[in-house]
Specification:
The complex is a heterodimer of chains A (338) and B (442). With 338 residues, chain A is of the alpha/beta class. Chain A is built from 14 helices and 13 strands. Chain B is 70% helix and 1% strand.
Chain lengths: 338, 442
């Protein structure tokens, strides 16, 4: 039986020798398991299936990192975190990486001492209204009742937006997204506001989605990305470049279908460097030469992961929008693999 | 004497009471339609109740058990001529997820290389019933069964968490060693020295010796179960694990605290009062946050102090403070004569408590104790706020599956049903116990 269960209580005072200050990368390799913090459940981003396996857009980042570092995308312990426990879980070392649709903000980066390694989804706060309300712009919502999750940045964004536009609203405080859906459907509020990806997922659950519209205004910037602890740059680099590898692979046309073929060598030197047939990028990271190929073998490139979990063919049906490659007018831009 | 008489000489046989006064009709007349106001209220209430039942049944009785997603449920509703967001129940989510709601992420054979381990919690629960029988229904089961109750605390965690069998055996050996030391040294130097020495030896054994010996034995004879990490616990199984352990530990702790609070020894008394008042002054959710986040920061990095263990300790401490006050109420209700009677028999403190005071005080406190148990069991759902996936936490995770996003009432109804079964049986047991121990003091 797990000894820590029995001895844990007896060793509170720290009788167990503290781990030496080795880097997170070495810790993960020694443990042969990646501890990855995810949400307790958010449609499309992270959710356990009926067999208890975690799936989703954020989960794909965890799996890619595990594959790049340990060569096996199942060597992960998913630690479900709530909005309240996520930062302490990361700061205390309970998790190595937090991929929990967390908005990259100044204070989280600087004051809470975390390093955001990139952005895997550009989100923004929007509004959903019933079509019969006859509203086509958020600026027409003067005097509306708004369902809003308390204690989140969305609450502050909402107040800012209504103040700058000099209109009034009446908040209906709710605790969870499920409650928000129920209240909105029951007509307790005229409009429900949260991140646009969440609104799309919410709308998809409605009996008659066409009776509701998501208003065009996006009133905040919510760059969501994975983050690690401040001060361990080697580990930060591993996660950052794993994410970049997924994004660059889409740009370079490397997919899960042609990965094996491309990994045997191509005419494009950047693809060769990415997949480890040329150069020594993996060695620089402290990983195997084919680290990126392993990461891509899990679920394909960024575009494939997007399409599978939240793309237009899923019930959530999000368009690429800002999350398209820069070549297609989006913001996804991986620095060169050189 | 003539045969004429002016009064009846023989009794008439009693007649059947009028049909309107007995049976269903009489009951209705007395209880529901005694006055025009009552009749009106009865009719209104009847209409209301039947409406609710009709709505509930037409919501619940739909053939959606095999639906694969909420949209498939909606198609079935449309075929039945129901529409609207919650027009009928989508039971497919329960069929799809009930193993998860019961066992969380416990290995179910889906992962390669690990077979289905879910028989272990089930067996554990059955054994729990066997182990509790001598305590709960002492007159109906053989007395020898109590030995199994003593062994059960070592079997339970081993079955749940797995690992080599030597670990629980070595832990149990600590108690045996402590007992032997107590008997040997206690006979020579007196019981206090014996007690201190026993505790010290047991601690040395557990901290320094049992670990290496257990792993040594495990390498010689590797008998054991597949280890299961605490993170894989979830659902009802997590609630029951936390609830049962905390309930079992909080009663003895609560008794000790209640006695300590009544003690004449200043230090013992102030420690107990301080502990009880501190714990009762802090919400459980705060203690859970301390367990999940603050402890992590205080402990040296790399220390792996099991999250479920932390939660169990906090829940136990919380419940024991309330338990102490419930039992103190029982102690206060005993007449002073009982204490004096115990003294006059020449019993020492522990004898008096064991034979005279506690049996009466605990009997008085049964309703309060069981209320605390039920409250504690329901409080286990609070662990979802620190990211443990108990049944309530799992509803969120299940709704995060695109197929079931939007399903609310079915999940909560199912969970409410499971909790009701557990809490209602606890409550019925307490009433049974009260009747059994009724000795006619009222």
């Amino acid at each position: 039986m797990n000894k820590s269960v029995f001895f844990g209580a007896l060793t509170v005072a720290g009788l167990a020798a503290g781990a030496s200050a080795a880097g997170t990368l070495d810790d993960v390799k020694a443990r042969d398991k990646l501890n990855c913090g995810v949400t307790t459940g958010l449609v499309g981003f992270a959710a356990p299936n009926a067999n208890g396996e975690w799936e989703g857009f954020d989960v794909a980042v965890c799996r890619a990192v595990a594959a790049a570092v340990l060569g096996d995308s199942t060597k992960i312990e998913f630690v479900p975190t709530t909005g309240k426990t996520r930062f302490t879980a990361l700061a205390s070392g309970e998790i190595d990486l937090l991929a929990r649709n967390t908005t990259w903000t100044f204070s989280r980066d600087v004051d809470l001492k975390f390093t955001f390694v990139g952005v895997n989804y550009y989100d923004g706060q929007g509004f959903i209204v019933p079509k019969e309300l006859g509203v086509s712009s958020a600026k027409e919502l003067d005097g509306a009742t708004v369902c809003i999750q308390t204690g989140t940045t969305t609450e502050l964004n909402l107040a800012d937006f209504f103040r700058t536009n000099n209109i009034s609203y009446e908040p209906v405080p709710i605790e969870t997204n499920a409650e928000g859906q129920q209240q909105f459907l029951a007509g307790a509020c005229d409009t429900y506001t949260t991140d646009a990806s969440g609104l799309a997922a919410t709308r998809a659950t409605f009996d008659d989605p066409s009776a509701y519209v998501i208003l065009p205004e996006i009133i905040s910037k919510e760059p969501l990305g994975p983050l690690v602890r401040h001060g361990d740059d080697e580990w930060g680099d591993v996660v950052r470049w794993t994410l970049n590898a997924l994004i660059a692979a889409e740009e370079l046309g490397v997919t899960s279908a042609n990965l094996a073929e491309m990994a045997s060598g191509t005419n494009n030197p950047e693809i060769n460097r990415l997949l480890g047939t040329e150069g020594n990028l993996g060695e620089m990271l402290g990983l195997d030469a084919d680290w990126a190929a392993k990461a891509l073998a899990v679920g394909g490139n960024y575009g494939e992961v997007f399409a599978k979990n939240i793309g237009e063919n899923t019930p959530i049906g999000l368009a690429r929008g800002l999350n398209a490659q820069w070549t297609d007018g989006g913001l996804m831009y991986a620095p060169p693999f050189r | 004497m003539s045969d004429i008489s002016f009064v009846r000489k023989d009794m008439l046989p009693p007649k059947e009471p009028p049909a309107s006064e007995v049976g269903v009709l009489g009951w209705l007349k007395v209880n529901l339609f005694s006055t025009w106001l009552n009749s009106l209220l009865s009719v209104v209430a009847l209409a209301f109740v039947s409406m609710v039942i009709y709505k509930l049944l037409s919501w619940a009785l739909v053939p959606t058990w095999h639906a694969k997603s909420l949209s498939e449920c909606r198609e079935i509703f449309a075929a039945l001529g129901k529409d609207g967001h919650n027009s009928a129940a989508c039971w497919g989510v329960i069929r799809d997820r009930w193993p998860q709601l019961l066992f969380g992420f416990y290995p179910n054979g889906a992962e390669e290389g690990v077979s289905d381990q879910r028989w272990r919690p089930v067996l554990d629960l059955l054994l729990l019933g066997v182990a509790m029988a001598p305590v709960l229904f002492s007159e109906k089961v053989p007395r020898k069964l109590i030995y199994f109750t003593y062994v059960y605390p070592f079997i339970m965690p081993w079955l749940l968490w797995g690992g080599p069998i030597w670990t629980p055996i070595c832990i149990a050996a600590g108690f045996v060693i402590a007992y032997v030391v107590y008997r040997v040294l206690g006979n020579i130097f007196g019981s206090l020295v014996g007690l201190v020495a026993a505790v010290a030896t047991a601690l040395v054994w557990w901290l320094f010796l049992s670990g290496p010996i257990a792993s040594g034995l495990a390498s010689i004879l590797p008998i054991g179960l597949e280890p299961v990490a605490s993170r894989q616990f979830g659902g009802m199984m997590l609630s029951i694990t936390i609830g049962v352990v905390a309930i079992a530990c909080s009663l003895p702790l609560g008794i000790l605290l209640a006695l300590g609070r009544q003690s004449d020894l200043l230090i013992v008394k102030s420690l107990c009062v301080g502990f009880i008042e501190f714990i009762r002054g802090v919400p459980l959710i705060t203690l859970l946050f301390v367990a999940s986040t603050l402890l992590n920061i205080f402990m040296p990095p790399g220390t792996n102090f099991d999250i479920i263990m932390r939660v169990i300790i906090m829940a136990t401490l919380f419940a024991s403070a309330y338990m102490a006050e419930v039992i103190r109420g029982g102690l206060a209700a005993l007449p002073k004569g009982q204490y004096e009677g115990a003294d006059s028999l020449g019993l020492d403190y522990w004898q008096a408590q064991r034979l005279i005071i506690m049996p009466q005080a605990l009997k008085i406190s049964i309703p309060g104790i069981v209320s605390t148990f039920i409250g504690l069991f329901k409080d286990t759902t609070l662990v979802s706020v620190i990211g443990l996936l108990d049944p309530l936490g799992l509803t969120n995770a299940i709704r995060a599956d695109a197929a079931w996003n939007g399903v609310v009432w079915e999940l909560y109804g199912f969970i409410a049903f499971m909790f009701f079964v557990c809490c209602f049986s606890m409550s019925r047991y307490s009433m049974y116990l009260e009747r059994k121990l009724q000795t006619g003091h009222r």
